[in-house]
Structures are given as structure tokens and as C-alpha cells.
């Protein structure tokens, strides 16, 4: 478990990082916490010529309030996100999902931006980002640009980031007062999600006024359960309504098959877990 | 002070090894650095079965830091060296040669084909990619059923078959019982099942590592092994080295579970490479290498038939095993399933029994000993089918067991498989467990959940297990064609300052021998716990031993320590009598002091040790030493037993299994250290539960291990397990002076069927009568929703019995 040799650079600004990536060409990798990259390097599944470590760039860390959005620096650790009061007040769904990521050691090392850029469809933070309409702020050689979550996630482990791009921060529109629940299904506590459902809802007087639901690991990218959202909005949040709405959860999904689950079972789980996620979110 | 010191035996002492092991501030094999040390890395076959048509190592030899690259032919030009199999289970067993590095063909994915030696481990690793090997693929043999089918392709073409051996026990032939076929055909109820024991990875914490120093006339090998003594002898025999010029050291070793009961190609290659280069060499494997190349465990297909009368009395038991050995036989090899032959009848009075086992080769990593070795497999099958028989009869599964088990006043009891159980009290352990578990209350809740059609169903699983451990009486091993005896050695050295060194031939790798042996010796000699040091694992200081496996250390090695201590006292008594000018017969020995009976004249054993060291005034003919050694060969196995009860909640919508409660009451005889026992139970339970629910080594159709990392090979953490309720009854073993039985494997053996029985019990009313292990949520969900036929398990095809009981009532009274 010894990685192949590589050059290591640790720039102190985003500009330097972008330049380092551009200089290194296609075979560079970004180290953003390393909880996924290091195992891949050690197993020699990847052998980059250069590793650009973002860990020393202060401007990439921290959470701030920007009026109608909460902005999370890409290098904020899961632990930072989990305990941040802004995240808790305005993007509760993300806090709930982050609670379920791996174990305390990983949560102290791994980063929010690193998880999104890695784009593992079983990763727990993609579906909440999609459900919350997060916007990715990206810096490349041509300056800064933004991409919606829907544009950002493109395929298994593939995003709209170009080789020299850095994910700088993530802007999450405030969902103040929304209740939320992340329903995760895995075989052992520290395993990846087989299926998970990220649900956040706003209700007034027992009636659901808005609902956003994202599915983890139900396709090569995170999926929004739009049909379920539509079936919930404007209805009273009783068990029967929720169950009927959740029946739409697997529509438009194309999950992978592995030893833990085939397509039929994953789609079944998506329906059952969506119902439970919405119920739990409503229960507060 | 005249008060008796509190005995050490029975104290829940924190282990004296813990601080260094937990902080890692100790000597592991991988920490060892020697002047001029070079590093080895192995290139492993990516393919499961192929002819090697060409191998080019020239580019690798040019890589930075590379000192040499060797192929199998370089290390063993004559193709003569083969890793040892010490247990040929039949005289006609087929035993293929397992080379250090593949020669001609590769027979499993992960088999080593070349070795690079470089200045650093990283440079050795880098150069592997530059070795060019051409493979000409051969048909891949996977799965025991396919391997023994007519016309199956062969793993080893020259053998003409994939069968290694067939081993049979028949109670009619042995004279220990009736004819099983007759019993089955004349019985009122017959239940047949096919159970699959999935393949497991031992998953010890410390990866394997070896260092060999050839720079002195005596070659020294450090290895992360659980068997340094066996390794020394076997390496000498395998490589033709003079045994007196080989020293093997197992420094602290981070777990083994049987996975380090091995003599490996890597260890032997390290010796040959070190000798070729005249330099010390080191190899430490990566976790990925462990997964594909260290031996696996379990992997059997079990066809089992039990017959009974309508009142539940067992009349016969028939077992046919196909055991997957992988591509080669390891050191125990086919002996693993054979050990199970004696345990299928378990705690029950079975009048007729037949066991057959066919050991089979496939193109997979070899299988060998893994915690329990043969006994967990047997225990699983019998305890599972007891529940199925109970369901068939409409009896409570505990009532069925009670009807058939050996009663406490029937010991010693000679079983149908010819073992004599010395002691036991199944009634007592069961009564205690049932009370702690609230069996009746849980049955009531189960009924209520069923009646209201609760999404979460409750199940109760029972396992009333026994095991044979304390391996083993040498004469029994001889009768089974095992290559060695089962004795153990100990020596005690009394130092001039009153401190004590205890040498043991057992070889701890996490068990806590240093603490337990110190407690035993402290009581025996009356010296302080902290004044005792335990020496182990170095064939130079501990020159004689048979190491640690099969829950043997305490029941064999611990008794050797007692015997050695008795000899020390006998020698000291002579000297003490002389020093006090008293007759030996008038001396009493207690609390470390010899006292002249009826007086207050006494001398401490430490004073005797100093007097013997000085040797100025010893009785005529007495050698100036108290040091003593003993070798203990047990007369019988020991037979721990226990009652394990597991309650699970099964979410019928998702198939998820949650362990609600787990109670075990074990009888392991006399307890030396309750804290160590507790640790062994918890770890053992976790491992057995993991077989039931999580772990499986999976091969794809090409023979590639797809569960090759811990992301896919699922190990539970504390998060996935309930808080265990553990308790004990104490029925002393009569076969040894301490009354101990051994605890290393109990939890693993007992727990797997308890969990599976519990899950099946929870969903039996859905028409489910088996689910294949591991009980993944998908398998459980499928069993519930589509009935057992689609549960994905071979158990699905197996029929029920001849009874007509409504399965909805089975086990739920």
C-alpha cells in the first residue's frame, strides 16, 4: 500500500493552486482532505504526477452569511459543517446528512468541497446539495464562474470541473425554518450508503408548502425526486399522503447493481426510505 | 501478616500487556530494522488460473534501488520445495505442491509469481509494474458443486481430479451407534437441509510481516506468526536447513484468529532470498495482499439430515460435506472440516451418526484454520437444523433441545462420535440464560407483533453449543494422522533476587497469556504478580512448544506451567528443610513460605532461591537450581459449553436486521481472569455475529475476489452490535488440575446459529425456513417478500420434512 511516486505542492492561495494544476497538466490530482484520494493512491488505482494539496489555503475554509445564502468554504471539514450554527439554522438538511458521514476521524479530515468534487454517487453530501439548490463557485484559469448542483454532477466520479479548476466554495440558498431528515441505509455503520434519502420540507398548519428531496446512490449522479415533491406540496402531511407520494420515489432512477443490492431492491428501498425520511422530517 | 493473600486466580486484572499493545510502543516485526536491511515485494497473479508462458524481469532489474528480481525457477530450480501440509486426512489424500513462487501455472488470483528486492519498500513496490508476465488463461474452477461435477475442468491437471480426499465416520462401523440409513428410513420425522458456510477472511489487525537475518551461522527469522515453534521446524524441513541453525522469533503479534497458523510461501522465500543475497530482508504485506493471499476460512456446503420420533427424540444424524480447500492445502488443510466431524452431534444424545467430508480444490485462495476451525461450521448446522426440526414438530426449540441433551448426571458421557465429555451442566447454563433473557416475555412480544402485523417482527434464536478444545491429546491426534502431538511445554526460572521468569511454549498474539500465566504462577509459588515475567515466542528462550491455536494455551500450556511450578516447589522443599534443619515431611508450603508445621519457623521461597544461587550450603546430592520444566500432554479435550440467546428485530419492509439483545451464559470451567474472559467473549461474539450478518469473501466468475477491501468485506464495529449480556456457570473440567476449559473460540462458535435462528424465527410465518449467510438486508427482504424459494440461497431448494405442522405456529408457542 505504497503510492507511486508523485510531486507534492501545497500552495497558499487559490490562484497559486490553479496555476499549479495548470502547470501539472492532466495528470494532477487535488488533495482536499484525502479521505478518498489517499486510499486510491495507496492502492495504485491512480498514479498522478503531481498532487496539489489545498490544505494550506486559508481562504477556502469557513462558513459565512451572505444575505440570502450560506456560503461554505470548500475546505471546511465535515466536522466544521456539522457544528456550524449558520448551517444548522439555514441548511439543516446538510447538517443532518453530514452527521452520518463515516466516523469522527474522517469527519475531522474530510472536507465538504472534497466530497462534492469527488462525486461518488454513494457519498452522502451530493443529494443534500442538489436538494438545496446549492451553487458551486469554481475558479479556473479563466477566472471565477458558478455551476448549479444539477450542472456540476455529471457522471460517476465526474463533475464539470476542468483539470485546472478548483471548487472554491458552495453557496446554499437559505432554507430557514425548514425541517429536515437524512435517511441513510447501509449494512454497517461505517459503510457507504446503499441508498439514502435527503428530505427537507416546509409546512404550515400541517400542510406541506414546499418539499425538496434528493436521492443518494440511485443513479450515477444524485437524483431529485421531483414527482414525490409535487405529490407532497399543498397536501396535509398525514401518513397516507406521504406513503402515496413516496411511491413515486424511484421514478427516473437508474441505480447500479452490486453485491448489496440489485435494481429492484434499490428502487424498493428508495420508496420505503423516502416515506420514512419525509415522516421523520415532519416529526422534526 | 498471617492472613492468606487474596488469590490471583479469579481476579479481574487489567492485562499487563495492554499499555504497550494499545499504544503500539512495542516490537512488531515490521518495526525491526537491521544494518543493511533490504526489502521484498511480491508480484501477484491477477488471474485465477493460467499457464505462465513468459516472464521478463529485465526492465524491473533496471529500476532505481532494485537489487534483484527472482522468479519461481530462480528460487527453486528443481521445483522441489512445497509448503507443508501437516494433516493428510487420508493415506491417499492428493496434496499438490504449493511452491514459493508459481512455477508453470498460477492457480489462484493473488498467488505470488515473482519477488523484487530493493533498497526500500517503495522502490521494490515501484518495480513490480515493470515485470512482464504472459498468461495463457486456463478454465477457472469455482464452487465445490461445480468442481466435483463430471467433466469439470481441473485445478491441477496432473492429479486427474479436483477431489483431495474423502474422510468418513460411521457410528455403525465405529461401534459407537447404529446405522444411520436405517434410523432415517424408520423415523417418523425427517428434516433435510443444505447450508452454505460462506468463505471468510480472518482479518487480523496486524498484516503479516517477516524479517530474515542470514548474517550469522544461525539464521534468525522474525515473523508475525502465531506458531514460531512449528515454523522453525517446518522451515527447516521444507528448505532442508539444519534445524539447530534456525531461530524463529514471534515478537508481539497483532492478532491471528488462525490466519497466522501457517507456514507461508513468503516466509520461505524470505529465507531463500536472504541466503542468496547474504543480506537481511524484510517483507510486510499490504492489506490488499492479506485479502487475496493469506488463507481464508470456512467455505463448506453442508448437506444435513436429522431424523426423530414424533415426540422429538432424535434417532439419527447424517452429514455430507463438500469443503472448499482453495487451490492448495495449507498446514492444517483438510483437517479443519474433519475437526467438525466430532461436533455435529453436539450436546445431544444421537443414536446413529454418519459423517462424510470431501475436500475439494478450486482456483481460489486456500482455506485453513479460522477461529473455531471446523467446529463453528458443525455447530451452525446442528443448531440450525434443531430449530427446523422443532418447527417441523411444532415444538418449542428449547424444549426439543432439552429433550435430547445429555443430562448433568450423565457425565462422563461418550458420544456417538466417540469423544468422552468429562463434565457439563446444560440445564444450569440454560436456566440462567433464559432468566436473563426474559425468554417468555420476548415470546409474548413476538406473538403480539405477529398478531398486529407489525412492520418490525421479533425473532428469538437459540444456540446451545459445546466445543472440543484444548488441542489436544497427542494419541488422538496420532489416530487422526495429524503430523505432530498436542503437548505443551513450560519452564520456570527462579532468579537470585526472588523474581521469576516463566517460559511458555504457547505463543500469544493478543490473548493475554502474560497476565494469566502470571496469575497462575503467583498463586502456585506465592510470589507477587509483578515479580513474574513471561517469556514466549522466541525459540532461543522458549526452545520447545506447539504454540497457540484451538483454545489450547490455558488448558494445555497453562497446565504445563502448573506442573513446572510443582517441580520448583518440590526442589525448594528439600533445600528449605535443610536450611531450617527440619524434615521435609514437616514442612507446609503456603503464600510463598515453607513453615515447619506447628512452629513459626519459616523461610520464603525467594530466600531459598538465593540460597540455591549461592549454593554454599545445599543438602547432599541436590543440584544448585530450582529451575524446572514440564511438558503436559492432556488425556482428553476440554468441552466448554453454553447457552446463547439472541433476539433480533427484522424490518420486513427493508430486510434490515437489528440485534435487540444477546445473552450468553458460558461454562468454561474455572476462570483465571474474568476480564480476559469477558474480552474473549465480546470479540468472539462480534466475529460470529459478523459471519451471520456481514462478512463474505465473494469471487466473481473469473475467480477475482470482489470483496478485496474493507469497503466491500464488511466488518462490524461497536456501532453495529448490541450491549452483550454475558454470564457464566462454572462446572470444572475434570481433565486438568485447574479445572479450566478454554474460551478463545466459544463466542464465535456459538453466536452464528443463534443469530440466524433468530432471524428465521422472526419471519418464519412468511413461509421462510432458511436464509443464506450473510443475512444481508436484500436477502432477508427477498425471503420475506418472495418466499424462501427466491431467497438466493441453496437452502431454498432443500425440502422441509415429512411433518404437516403449520409453519406459522413453529417456534412461537
Automatic annotation (TrEMBL), chain A:
Name recorded for this polypeptide: Carbon-monoxide dehydrogenase medium subunit
Name of the top EC class for this enzyme: oxidoreductase
Keyword field contains Calcium: no
The keyword Oxidoreductase belongs to this UniProt entry's keyword annotation: yes
One Pfam family linked to the record: CO_deh_flav_C
Superkingdom as given in the UniProt entry: Bacteria
Lineage: Bacteria, Bacillati, Actinomycetota, Actinomycetes, Pseudonocardiales
Alphabetically ordered keywords of this record: FAD, Flavoprotein, Oxidoreductase
Residue ranges constituting the FAD-binding PCMH-type domain according to the UniProt record: 1-177
Enzyme Commission number, as recorded: 1.2.7.4
Gene Ontology molecular function, alphabetical: anaerobic carbon-monoxide dehydrogenase activity; FAD binding
Species the sequence originates in: Prauserella isguenensis
TrEMBL record, chain B:
InterPro entries: Ald_Oxase/Xan_DH_a/b, Ald_Oxase/Xan_DH_a/b_sf, Ald_Oxase/xanthine_DH-like, AldOxase/xan_DH_MoCoBD1, AldOxase/xan_DH_MoCoBD2, AldOxase/xan_DH_Mopterin-bd_sf
EC number in record: 1.2.7.4
Top EC category: oxidoreductase
Bias (Gly residues) ranges: 791-803
The keyword Acyltransferase is annotated on this UniProt entry: no
Gene3D superfamilies: Aldehyde oxidase/xanthine dehydrogenase, a/b hammerhead, Aldehyde oxidase/xanthine dehydrogenase, molybdopterin binding domain
Top-level taxonomic group: Bacteria
Oxidoreductase in keyword set: yes
Cofactor: Mo-molybdopterin cytosine dinucleotide
Renumbered residue ranges of the record's region Disordered: 791-813
UniProt domain Aldehyde oxidase/xanthine dehydrogenase a/b hammerhead: residue ranges: 23-139
Pfam families to which the protein is assigned, alphabetical: Ald_Xan_dh_C (PF01315), MoCoBD_1 (PF02738), MoCoBD_2 (PF20256)
Gene Ontology molecular-function annotations: anaerobic carbon-monoxide dehydrogenase activity; iron ion binding
Keyword annotations: Molybdenum, Oxidoreductase
PANTHER family recorded: ALDEHYDE OXIDASE 1-RELATED, XANTHINE DEHYDROGENASE
Protein name (Swiss-Prot/TrEMBL): Carbon-monoxide dehydrogenase large subunit
Lineage: Bacteria, Bacillati, Actinomycetota, Actinomycetes, Pseudonocardiales
Amino acid at each position: 500500500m505504497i503510492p507511486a511516486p508523485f510531486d507534492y505542492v501545497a500552495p497558499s492561495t487559490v490562484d497559486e493552486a490553479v496555476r499549479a494544476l495548470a502547470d501539472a497538466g492532466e495528470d494532477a490530482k487535488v488533495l482536499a482532505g484525502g479521505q478518498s484520494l489517499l486510499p486510491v493512491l495507496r492502492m495504485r488505482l491512480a498514479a498522478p504526477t503531481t498532487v496539489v494539496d489545498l490544505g494550506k489555503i486559508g481562504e477556502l475554509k469557513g462558513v459565512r452569511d451572505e444575505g440570502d445564502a450560506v456560503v461554505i468554504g470548500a475546505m471546511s471539514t465535515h466536522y466544521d459543517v456539522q457544528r456550524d450554527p449558520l448551517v444548522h439554522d439555514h441548511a439543516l438538511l446538510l447538517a443532518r446528512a453530514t452527521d452520518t458521514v463515516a466516523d469522527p476521524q474522517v469527519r475531522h479530515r474530510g472536507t465538504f468541497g472534497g466530497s462534492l468534487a469527488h462525486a461518488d454517487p454513494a457519498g452522502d453530501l451530493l443529494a443534500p446539495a442538489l436538494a438545496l439548490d446549492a451553487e458551486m463557485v469554481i475558479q479556473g484559469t479563466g477566472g471565477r464562474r458558478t455551476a448549479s448542483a444539477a450542472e456540476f454532477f455529471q457522471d460517476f466520479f465526474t463533475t464539470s470541473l476542468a483539470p485546472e479548476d478548483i471548487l472554491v466554495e458552495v453557496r446554499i440558498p437559505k432554507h430557514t425554518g425548514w425541517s429536515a431528515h437524512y435517511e441513510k441505509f447501509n449494512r454497517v455503520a461505517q459503510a457507504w450508503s446503499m441508498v439514502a434519502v435527503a428530505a427537507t420540507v416546509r409546512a404550515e398548519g400541517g400542510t406541506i408548502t414546499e418539499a425538496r428531496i434528493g436521492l443518494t446512490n440511485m443513479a450515477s449522479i444524485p437524483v431529485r425526486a421531483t414527482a414525490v415533491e409535487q405529490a407532497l406540496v399543498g397536501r396535509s402531511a398525514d401518513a397516507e399522503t406521504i406513503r402515496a407520494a413516496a411511491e413515486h420515489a424511484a421514478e427516473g432512477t437508474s441505480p447500479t447493481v452490486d453485491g448489496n443490492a440489485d435494481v429492484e431492491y434499490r428502487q424498493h428501498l428508495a420508496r420505503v426510505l423516502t416515506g420514512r425520511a419525509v415522516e421523520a422530517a415532519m416529526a422534526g | 501478616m498471617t492472613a492468606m493473600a487474596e488469590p490471583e486466580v479469579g481476579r479481574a486484572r487489567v492485562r499487563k500487556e495492554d499499555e504497550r499493545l494499545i499504544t503500539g510502543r512495542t516490537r512488531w516485526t515490521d518495526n525491526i530494522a537491521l544494518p543493511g536491511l533490504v526489502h521484498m515485494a511480491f508480484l501477484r497473479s491477477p488471474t485465477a488460473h493460467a499457464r505462465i508462458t513468459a516472464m521478463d524481469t529485465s526492465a524491473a532489474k533496471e529500476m532505481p534501488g532494485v537489487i534483484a528480481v527472482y522468479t519461481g525457477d530462480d528460487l527453486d530450480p528443481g521445483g522441489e520445495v512445497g509448503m507443508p501440509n501437516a494433516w493428510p486426512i487420508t493415506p491417499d489424500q492428493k496434496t499438490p505442491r504449493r511452491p514459493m513462487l508459481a512455477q508453470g501455472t498460477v492457480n489462484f488470483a493473488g498467488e505470488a509469481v515473482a519477488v523484487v528486492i530493493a533498497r526500500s519498500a517503495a522502490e521494490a513496490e515501484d518495480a513490480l509494474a515493470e515485470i512482464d508476465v504472459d498468461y495463457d488463461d486456463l478454465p477457472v474452477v469455482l464452487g465445490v458443486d461445480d468442481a466435483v461435477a463430471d467433466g469439470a475442468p481441473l485445478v491441477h491437471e496432473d492429479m486427474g481430479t479436483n477431489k483431495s480426499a474423502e474422510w468418513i465416520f460411521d457410528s455403525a462401523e465405529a461401534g459407537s451407534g447404529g446405522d444411520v440409513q436405517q434410523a432415517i428410513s424408520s423415523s417418523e420425522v425427517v428434516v433435510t437441509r443444505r447450508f452454505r458456510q460462506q468463505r471468510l477472511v480472518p482479518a487480523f489487525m496486524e498484516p503479516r510481516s517477516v524479517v530474515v537475518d542470514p548474517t550469522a551461522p544461525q539464521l534468525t527469522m522474525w515473523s508475525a506468526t502465531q506458531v514460531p515453534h512449528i515454523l522453525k521446524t517446518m522451515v527447516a524441513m521444507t528448505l532442508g536447513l539444519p534445524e539447530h541453525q534456525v531461530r524463529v522469533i514471534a515478537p508481539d503479534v497483532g492478532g491471528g484468529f488462525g490466519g497466522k497458523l501457517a507456514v507461508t510461501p513468503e516466509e520461505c522465500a524470505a529465507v531463500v532470498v536472504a541466503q542468496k543475497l547474504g543480506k537481511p530482508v524484510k517483507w510486510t504485506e499490504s492489506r490488499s495482499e492479506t485479502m487475496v493471499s493469506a488463507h481464508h476460512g470456512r467455505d463448506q456446503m453442508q448437506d444435513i439430515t436429522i431424523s426423530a420420533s414424533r415426540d422429538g427424540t432424535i434417532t439419527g444424524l447424517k452429514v455430507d460435506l463438500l469443503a472448499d480447500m482453495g487451490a492448495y492445502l495449507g498446514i492444517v488443510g483438510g483437517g479443519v472440516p474433519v475437526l467438525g466431524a466430532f461436533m455435529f452431534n453436539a450436546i445431544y444424545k444421537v443414536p446413529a451418526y454418519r459423517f462424510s467430508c470431501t475436500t475439494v480444490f478450486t482456483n481460489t485462495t486456500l482455506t485453513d484454520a479460522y477461529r473455531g476451525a471446523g467446529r463453528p461450521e458443525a455447530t451452525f448446522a446442528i443448531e440450525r437444523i434443531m430449530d427446523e426440526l422443532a418447527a417441523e414438530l411444532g415444538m418449542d426449540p428449547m424444549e426439543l433441545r432439552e429433550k435430547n441433551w445429555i443430562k448433568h448426571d450423565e457425565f462422563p458421557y461418550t458420544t456417538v462420535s466417540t469423544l468422552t465429555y468429562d463434565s457439563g451442566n446444560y440445564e444450569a447454563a440454560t436456566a440462567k440464560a433464559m432468566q436473563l433473557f426474559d425468554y417468555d416475555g420476548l415470546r409474548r412480544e413476538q406473538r403480539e407483533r405477529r398478531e398486529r402485523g407489525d412492520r418490525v417482527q421479533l425473532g428469538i434464536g437459540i444456540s446451545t453449543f459445546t466445543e472440543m478444545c484444548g488441542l489436544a491429546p497427542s494419541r488422538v491426534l496420532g489416530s487422526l494422522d495429524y503430523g505432530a502431538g498436542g503437548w505443551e511445554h513450560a519452564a520456570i526460572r527462579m532468579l537470585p533476587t526472588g523474581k521469576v521468569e516463566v517460559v511458555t511454549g504457547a505463543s500469544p498474539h493478543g490473548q493475554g497469556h502474560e497476565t494469566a500465566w502470571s496469575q497462575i504462577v503467583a498463586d502456585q509459588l506465592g510470589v507477587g504478580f509483578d515479580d513474574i515475567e513471561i517469556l514466549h515466542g522466541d525459540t532461543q528462550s522458549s526452545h520447545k512448544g506447539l504454540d497457540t491455536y484451538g483454545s489450547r494455551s490455558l488448558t494445555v500450556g497453562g497446565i504445563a506451567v502448573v506442573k513446572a511450578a510443582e517441580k520448583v516447589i518440590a526442589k525448594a522443599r528439600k533445600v528449605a528443610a535443610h536450611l531450617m534443619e527440619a524434615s521435609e515431611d514437616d514442612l507446609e508450603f503456603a503464600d510463598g513460605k515453607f513453615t515447619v508445621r506447628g512452629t513459626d519457623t519459616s523461610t520464603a521461597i525467594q530466600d531459598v532461591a538465593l540460597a540455591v544461587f549461592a549454593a554454599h550450603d545445599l543438602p547432599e546430592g541436590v543440584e544448585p537450581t530450582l529451575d524446572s520444566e514440564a511438558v503436559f500432554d492432556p488425556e482428553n479435550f476440554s468441552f466448554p459449553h453454553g447457552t446463547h440467546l439472541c433476539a433480533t428485530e427484522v424490518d420486513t419492509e427493508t430486510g434490515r436486521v437489528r440485534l435487540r439483545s444477546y445473552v450468553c451464559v458460558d461454562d468454561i470451567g474455572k476462570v483465571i481472569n474474568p476480564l480476559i474472559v469477558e474480552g474473549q467473549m465480546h470479540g468472539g461474539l462480534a466475529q460470529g455475529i459478523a459471519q451471520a450478518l456481514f462478512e463474505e469473501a465473494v469471487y466473481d466468475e473469473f475467480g477475482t475476489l470482489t470483496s478485496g477491501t474493507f469497503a466491500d468485506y464488511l466488518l462490524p464495529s461497536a456501532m453495529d452490535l448490541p450491549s452483550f449480556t454475558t454470564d457464566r456457570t462454572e462446572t470444572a473440567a475434570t481433565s486438568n488440575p485447574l479445572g479450566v476449559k478454554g474460551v478463545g473460540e466459544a463466542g464465535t462458535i456459538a453466536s452464528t446459529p443463534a443469530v440466524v435462528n433468530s432471524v428465521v424465527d422472526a419471519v418464519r410465518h412468511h413461509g421462510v425456513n432458511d436464509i443464506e449467510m450473510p443475512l444481508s438486508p436484500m436477502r432477508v427482504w427477498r425471503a420475506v417478500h418472495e418466499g424462501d424459494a427466491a431467497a438466493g440461497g441453496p437452502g431454498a431448494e432443500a425440502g422441509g420434512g415429512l411433518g404437516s405442522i403449520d409453519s406459522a405456529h413453529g417456534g412461537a408457542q
